[in-house]
Amino acid sequence: MESLIVTVNRIQRACTVLGDHGGDTNLPTLWEALPSVVVVGGQSSGKSSVLESIVGRDFLPRGSGIVTRRPLVLQLHKTERGLQEYGEFLHLPKKKFTDFSMVRKEIQDETDRMTGKSKQISPVPIHLSIYSPNVVNLTLIDLPGLTKVAVEGQPESIVQDIESMVRSYVEKPNCIILAITPANQDIATSDAIKLSREVDPTGERTFGVLTKLDLMDKGTNAIDVLEGRAYPLQHPWVGIVNRSQADIKKNVDMIASRWKEREFFASSPDYGHLASKMGSEYLAKVLSKHLESVIRARLPGITSLINKSIEELEAELSHLGRSVAVDAGAQLYTILELCRAFDRIFKEHLDGGRPGGDRIYGVFDHQLPAALRKLPFDRHLSLQNIRKVVSEADGYQPHLIAPEQGYRRLIDGALNYFRGPAEASVDAVHFLLKELVRRSIAETQELKRFPTLQAEIAAAASEALERFREDSKKTTLRMVDMESSYLTVDFFRKLPQEVEKGGNPTSSSVDRYAESHFRRIGSNVYSYVGMVSDTLRNTIPKAVVYCQVREAKHSLLDHFYIQLGKKEGKQLAQLLDEDPALMERRQQCVKRLELYKSARDEIDSVLWAR
Ligand SMILES: Nc1nc2c(ncn2[C@@H]2O[C@H](COP(=O)(O)OP(=O)(O)OP(=O)(O)O)[C@@H](O)[C@H]2O)c(=O)[nH]1
């Protein structure tokens, strides 16, 4: 099952490539779920020395102040005996570093690339893989040393920033803490132990490491700690002797120093009985074994987390919609598809399936007849007005039999009233159509992402509806005008001839004649106008539907399509300018989904290989 650490290593690298370093993004994180060994300790406690002796190589930057300013994810891969050792950085794939002093330089340079020369810290990890026959499979994360004071050139906040970064790692329940404490200091004040006690009070995730055992005052020893009495942890404490500053200066190599360390324990009167469980080689083996077992235990949990996150991300992506095409042809296609989606919904509103179209019928069935009924014909055809109009039409010679001109003027005047309801019907339908356009845009889910295109479609539709309204008005008014331009002759021919009956006994016979004569004229005109009203009640809706509703259904966006065809790539792109926050979010989700899918493949492949 050695391959489990290798698998997790690969997933860890994918996390860094795809921008998952845990932390505060509102995306699901895999990084945080992966078990790892994190090295913590105060400045100069010997962290770098421990890492180097586990690896058996000099490769970490040295210097004063805070040298480690980005997390270093150190992945150790055991290779066959006899093969050459080399290091490889994730940010420089395919470049093999066989000279480990160049590894040190690259760590320094890469740290500066991210943080500048400002000596700030950054949470973005550097990934270094070391392939060597002298290592065990293990992943260690080196973090900046906990410090109490900022040095020159560093902001005051750095003390707190480092603590927060270290804390963010050690807080994770999947983190194995390698707490480094120098034996020549008071252990009660050890930063590493203090922090690990806080986040892991039962000590099940903490490995205590005591460095600098060789530097303890003569006559003192750390047996109480190493045997687990002074500071009990679930795992046994491991004592270490690294190279001293003098050894480093003398260029004592790591292999020699490992040998020296072995010697120290084997020959020590204090620690001789613990010799087989001390030293950096032993530490590496224990950690590797422990990491394996933690990974094995966590694998089912990680797998279900991966599956759940894939589902969530896929759901979110389908909600966010596909990303926008980049070339003009595809953009035009997308815009046309979006327009069609809108058009489909608009038609559903008119044809039924969605509400709204029925209100147009309401205009014809209710509003128009009511408006026609309310026209003021009674006033227009009052005796007084009839007399006035007829007399005026007659001029100096009153009519002899029937007042032809009088009739015409009265009818003309009455028909003129029909213009009002005709125009009102056109306007009422216009506003209903406008409202349906507004609703259809709002209901077109696909358009939601594109506020600019939405506005353009609204403007184009509104402009088209305006045109239809003008045309409809012309047509309906023309129908009214047509009624007055040629009267139905038959109607008048069929009128019964005047026969005088009854009348008012108190008025003179001339008056009586005149009054009933005018009354009859009024009633004739009234029934003619009634006949026209019936006709218009049927023909106005036909004209309105023909000019407005039918046009809206068939050619609402025709002009817009013609304009679209003339647009250049840049203008098309402008129509599709999505909300930038949305674009960003989609990109993040796509990357994270890629990570989870590759992690799933990695895990599947080890499970199948078992
Ligand atoms: N004699 C002796 N010296 C040690 C031991 N461990 C570390 N040192 C020395 O202590 C100094 C600090 O060690 P580092 O390994 O650089 O400590 P660090 O925790 O990585 O330090 P920073 O990265 O600066 O926080 C170096 O000069 C080491 O040679 C040890 O076990 N014995």
From TrEMBL:
SUPFAM superfamilies: P-loop containing nucleoside triphosphate hydrolases (SSF52540). Residues 518-610 form the GED domain. Residues 31-300 form the Dynamin-type G domain. It is found in: Cytoplasm, Cytoskeleton, Phragmoplast. The keyword 4Fe-4S does not apply. It catalyses: GTP + H2O = GDP + phosphate + H(+). GO terms for cellular component: membrane; microtubule; phragmoplast. GO terms for biological process: cell division. CDD domains: DLP_1. It holds the Pfam family Dynamin_N. Forms homodimer and may homooligomerize and heterooligomerize to form the phragmoplastin complex. Binds to PHIP1. Belongs to the TRAFAC class dynamin-like GTPase superfamily. Dynamin/Fzo/YdjA family. This is Dynamin-type G domain-containing protein. It comes from Gossypium mustelinum (Cotton).
